[in-house]
Amino acid sequence: METIKNYFFSDMGVMLGRSMRHIFRSLDTIITVTIMPIAMMLLFVYVLGGAIQTGTSNYVDYLLPGILLIAIANSVGYTSYRLFTDVQRGIFERFNSMPIARSAALWGHVLTSLVSNAISLVVIILVALLMGFRSPAGILSWLAVAGILALFSLTLTWIAAIAGLSAKSVDGAGVIAYPIHFLPLISSAFVPTRTMPSGVRAFAEYQPVTPIVETIRALLSNQPVGNEIWIALAWCVGISCIAYIFAMRVYKKRG
Amino acid sequence: MQNNSIQVKGLQKSYKQLNVLKGVDFEVEKGSIFALLGSNGSGKTTIVKILTTLLKQDSGTAVVNGLDVLAKPANVRQSISLTGQFAAVDEILTGRENLIMIARLRHLSNPRQVADDLLNRFGLTDAAHRRASTYSGGMRRRLDIAMSLAGRSPIIFLDEPTTGLDPEARIEVWKMVRELATNGTTVFLTTQYLDEAEQLADQIAILHEGRIIVSGTLADLKKLFPPAQVEYIEKQPTLEDIFLAIIGKKEKN
Ligand SMILES: Nc1ncnc2c1ncn2[C@@H]1O[C@H](COP(=O)(O)OP(=O)(O)O)[C@@H](O)[C@H]1O
Ligand SMILES: [Mg+2]
């Protein structure tokens, strides 16, 4: 057992290298996770931005947090797809019959999701800078933003893991992505919630994405974050823990 | 040291209502080729999964390389290598990358060298830098088996290694299996094909309705068959005849 434990991180590194190759070799993944949010940002800023009243001087500044969350949300379908194919093709079985820590394969996928999201978010922020995004935030605020984005990624990744590990078909594995795609759209990511009709507004204000967006926006514009950050963290940590427990349960059953 | 690589006693396993294994017993000698013969759905894969620690039995014991699979699964995994029923290769990686990945996971000192040697040995050098998704069925199976050989495990499990292969690829797999055994590796293979067991195996066990109904060497099995039939041409009984005769007897009882 000792030797297996010692190799956990190197094994996970091999798994990470493997699925990062999958991502870099899949044009589809790169387009959906990185290019599409950039296209949305261009569309909203240059086509619709003039008509949207947010109360900020620069619409890119308002929009960026939501775009970052959309990029993360777009990636979850791919995570569950990669997990599903590994189960389906017997790759997990092969790994599980080898002297590797059992959870290294699963953690490899989770780490891949975090690393690939980090890369695509950096690219999106660079494009936003070219489009005039400016932030007075200091290093600590940026670290806090990075932490919240990582936590949001982790939360969605564990949900994706449940779907990918338990799905009976490729379509089943991908289905989880749809409701998650909608959450940022019906939140304060693009327009302030006060402009929405009352029913939609109630949903938008109480769903997890809104406090996350508000927190990131406040951090990036050097405004006080207030209670939003705690609501955002509570949502992420709560959902992460529950999803993690279920994902591990399905994984043990499958493996 | 014991002379048996695998000892199985009273193995039982059910999937919900379905009672697949009803008390399976057999032993596999070290360094031999053992063929588990059985029709589709007889429970061959279930046995392989239990022996390779992927599945837990309901009762009975299974000892692999002197280690109990339930008590010491991690140690069992150090001594085995599995080639599952369906080729488990990473289709997006190239053949070489697949082999390097496995060599790294086995913590071998020179993964690239190991990969190149295996590619060479399995005639995949020309296809080394192509994605596995472009491989033919036979090439994929070869890569799959090559992946199992990285790390030189003393016991190799091959679950229906030739199902779905064309005759030429099948003969290549047979050649590899024989090579393995001459190097002292214990090979446990399952098959639906009687001629495959006949061609390859030192020991054969026939799994039928949840039990091993007969086991032994090919010569032992041939003895079970009634003496040569008097026909116009004297005909040696093939395994197929033995199998059908035994099944027939069982069903009459
Ligand atoms: N996970 C499972 N759940 C329910 N039934 C299963 C499962 N795996 C196998 N079976 C059933 O158990 C029987 C034996 O399966 P298997 O061991 O795969 O046979 P073989 O490998 O000899 O074809 C089959 O009837 C199969 O349908
Ligand atoms: Mg089978």
Describe the structure.
The complex is a heterodimer of chains A (255) and B (253). Chain A is mainly alpha-helical and 255 residues long. Chain A has one domain (2-254). Chain A contains 12 helices and no strands. In chain A, helix 3 runs parallel beside helix 6 (104-130). Chain A is elongated and about 60 Å long. Chain B has 253 residues and is an alpha/beta fold. Chain B has a domain at 4-85 and 172-227: P-loop containing nucleotide triphosphate hydrolases (Rossmann fold), CATH 3.40.50.300. Chain B has helices spanning 44-51, 73-79, 95-105, 111-121, 137-149, 167-182, 194-200, 218-224, 239-252; strands spanning 4-15, 18-29, 33-37, 59-64, 67-68, 80-83, 155-159, 186-191, 203-208, 211-216. In chain B, strand 4 (59-64) and strand 5 (67-68) form a beta hairpin. The longest helix of chain B has 16 residues, at 167-182. The N and C termini of chain B lie far apart (41 Å). Chains A and B meet through helix 2 and helix 5 of A and helix 2, strand 6 and helix 3 of B. The structure holds adenosine-5'-diphosphate (ADP) and magnesium ion (MG). Residues 15, 18, 20, 38, 40-46 of chain B line the site of adenosine-5'-diphosphate (ADP).
